[in-house]
Amino acid sequence: xxxxxDLDWFQRPASVVAxxxxxxxxxxxxxxxxxIEVEAYEADDPASHSYRGLTPRNAAMFGPAAxxxxxxxxxxxxxxxxxxxxxxxxxxxxxxxQSGVETMRRRRAGIEDRLLCAGPGRLASALAIDLGHNGMxxxxxPFTLRLLPGGAPGAIVAGPRIGISKGVxxxxxxxxxxxxxxxxxxxxxxx
DNA sequence: CCCAGGATTGACT
DNA sequence: GTCAATCCTGGGA
Length: 191
Known about the structure:
Structural class: alpha+beta
Shape: globular
Radius of gyration: 15 Å
Distance between the termini: 41 Å
Number of strands: 8
Low-confidence stretches: none
Strand content: 25-35%
Number of helices: 4
């Protein structure tokens, strides 16, 4: 099994790190899978929580790289990012479930397998990520983040980010083309 | 101090 | 397709 990338690897701008993260394996307490979809949020990005500078909520985004930035979405859901260069982070939007699938099913009774980690809120729920994980180093227990031989299992596609009202033109959503574990399909590039 | 508005999801028409 | 749930951040007064 390979190790997590060096700290320097994370200290690049999130929009550069994000596509490199596709195909890596992300787990919490042995529950997780292959990263299928991510979004990048930069420091000077009007859609980013860090855009207006350091606040109590977004403090992790201005701390060391390779840490988790966890926030509450719409008052109900948790979402998890991996911090990159200062003020930038990669939002984890979808995994292909690979380990601890029974645990995920128990946590999300009734949901289809392909939806277990399809979306940032579902992903955090399936892995039982919450604010208690904010600021933790994703290269160390209880997290694992590692490269797999072969890299991304398919072509990488990019498109506009989902659910934002600013920065809508930036193509900073990245995913594995055609994966059935995406939160939503990527619009095919027009000819 | 106030309150509009979310990096979403699931239920329902 | 539409829409409510739910809560807390942070900008503005």
